[in-house]
Specification:
alpha+beta; Pdz3 Domain; six-stranded mixed sheet; disordered N terminus; Tail-specific_protease; protease; Carboxyl-terminal processing protease; endopeptidase activity; PDZ_sf
Length: 524
């Protein structure tokens, strides 16, 4: 596996940006099936039947239909998409905020299903499954030595609530096989990663997407932080590709006062639907900061736009993605679905933040990659905005439409000595894979360490930094991390903390030197 490292930031950036596409579903009622009456629509149906009945070779007409649907939607806009049955269930589970299973995070290590960490208080944790265990069999099905794809593994481990499964595991630390019976249960898929205090008075909440459970997760975190004394709040929606609009609106309502406009939509007939804040808000008078970046999109931009246009708080970071289109979903009997753009949304000042897509889908998504080249990820003055899409808030602040939310306080891409490749790589899944493999070899060296002892250990040693360099080189990436040593060691320590202690400990390490967080804390 060989890469040209010149293009590595763009490759990793494109992977992160995929969340913008997958996260762009907004919560509108499913539409009913439409009647097929006119000749053009009948022509397509007749052609498919003709091929099905008469074509000389066997043809999978379903694949033809799927291709046709994809081609039709590609002529519309970048966010009108077809979702095949194989993807739709996973997408819906993510947006619902839970699924039924055994509750483990796993990693295909070599030819085995290795447990990274059982979900806290989940079925596997209660049954005694431990980090590092190998799952050899699920009931009678052999899982090792087969290099099964992830969807096959999921199907073996998922099931109905209350159903039983017997796992045969190998516990490396004890050198023995065990049989463990587990009763499947509902496993939450958190959309709020963490809610913690960064200082005595400043709370921090990280939202990774807007699912059905996001508002309730957010409120649980907010109430906890208020009880701990927070009178200022940082809401982090960096790399949040969106989700259900209603969840973002509900969070905005907690920040805005009665009758302030949150968002409005306009459909093809010019019908306008406005949504206003209500009298009940839990954080209406205290300081609010929203962190955004180039992968912040859709529902995340609704939240940021509502806060910015109402002069309610400060938007910190880099220009957001620029998705201002509203989708409605239509489901089909085979489990597939189509999301069709049915309206545009506008921030309270009346601006559309949808970036242009007239040059086609490929150019549309490459616009985000082009921000590396035009310099806007590093200098605010490089952000190109047009005076024709200039708006004013009630307090006279200038805001712009036409392509994302421009932050009030700009923070450049976190780069140490120009090594943006390292900055993006460290936020990818490859770091988690490396850390798991290291723990699999050296887990006993961390046994019994308090978190503070752990931090001291990781600060003093370069062992894992050196091992990570070798790991990266062995995976075909010729990168020199020496100029970014402090950055690399911080992210490695954070990932070790996540796998050893839990999610909040990851953020306690990462956020300490986070450029946007430091900007907020220093300006207060």
């Amino acid at each position: 596996m060989n890469f040209n490292t010149k293009y590595l930031p763009i490759l990793i950036f494109a992977t992160l940006a995929l969340g913008v596409v997958l996260g762009g579903m907004l919560n509108f009622p499913n539409t009913a099936d439409y009647l097929v009456n006119n000749n053009s629509k009948n022509k397509l149906n007749k052609l498919i039947d003709f091929i099905d009945n008469e074509y000389v070779d066997d043809v999978n007409t379903d694949s033809i239909v799927n291709l046709t649907v994809d081609n039709i939607l590609a002529k519309l806009d970048p966010h009108s998409v077809y979702i095949p049955p194989s993807d739709q269930q996973e997408v819906m589970e993510s947006m619902k905020g839970n699924f039924v299973g055994i509750g483990v995070n796993f990693y295909m290590y070599k030819d085995s299903v290795a447990v990274i960490k059982p979900v806290e208080n989940g079925p596997s944790a209660k049954a005694g499954i431990k980090a590092g265990d190998r799952i050899l069999y699920a009931d009678k099905t052999k899982l090792f030595g087969r290099k099964l794809p992830s969807d096959s593994l999921y199907s073996k481990l998922k099931g109905t609530v209350g159903s039983n499964i017997e796992l045969t595991i190998y516990r490396k630390s004890e050198g023995k096989r065990l049989k463990v019976k587990i009763k499947r249960d509902v496993i939450p898929l958190k959309s709020v990663d963490v809610a913690l205090l960064l200082s005595n008075k400043t709370g921090y909440i990280k939202i990774n997407r807007f699912s059905e459970t996001t508002y309730s997760e957010f409120m649980s975190g907010l109430i906890k932080l208020k009880h701990q004394g927070a009178n200022s709040l940082i809401i982090d929606v960096r790399d949040n590709g969106g989700g259900y609009m209603e969840e973002a609106i509900a969070i905005a309502d907690e920040l805005l006062t009665d009758k302030q406009l949150i968002v409005f939509t306009k459909n093809k007939n010019g019908n306008i639907d406005k949504t206003f804040a209500t009298a009940k808000g839990n954080f209406e008078k205290r300081n609010v900061f929203i962190l955004i970046n180039e992968n912040t999109a859709s529902a995340s931009e609704i939240l940021a736009g509502a806060v910015q246009d109402n002069d309610r708080g400060t938007i910190v970071g880099r220009r957001s993605f620029g998705k201002g289109l509203v989708q409605r979903e239509m489901n089909f009997a085979d489990g597939s679905a189509v999301r069709l753009t049915i309206a545009r949304y506008y921030t309270p000042t009346g601006r559309s933040i949808q970036k242009p897509y007239s040059k086609g889908n490929e150019a549309y998504f490459k616009e985000s990659e082009a921000r590396f080249g035009n310099g806007e990820l590093y200098e605010k003055d490089s952000i190109k905005v047009s005076d024709t899409i200039k708006f004013k808030t009630k307090k006279g602040k200038i805001v712009y439409g036409g392509g994302g939310i421009v932050p009030d306080v700009f923070v450049p891409l976190e780069v140490e000595h120009g090594n943006e490749s390292a900055a993006y790589l460290l936020q990818s899944g490859i770091v988690g894979n490396f850390v798991f493999e290291q723990l699999d070899k050296h887990r006993s060296t961390f046994k019994g360490l308090s978190f503070n002892q752990f931090k001291t250990k990781m600060t003093k040693t370069d062992f894992y930094f050196n091992a990570f360099e070798k790991f990266i080189f062995g995976n075909g990436l010729d990168l020199n991390f020496r100029k970014s040593k402090a950055l690399v060691k911080r992210y490695l320590a954070a990932e070790f903390a996540r796998q050893l202690y839990g999610e909040s400990y990851y953020y306690q390490i990462v956020l300490k030197e986070d450029a946007m967080v430091k900007k907020v804390l220093n300006q207060k």
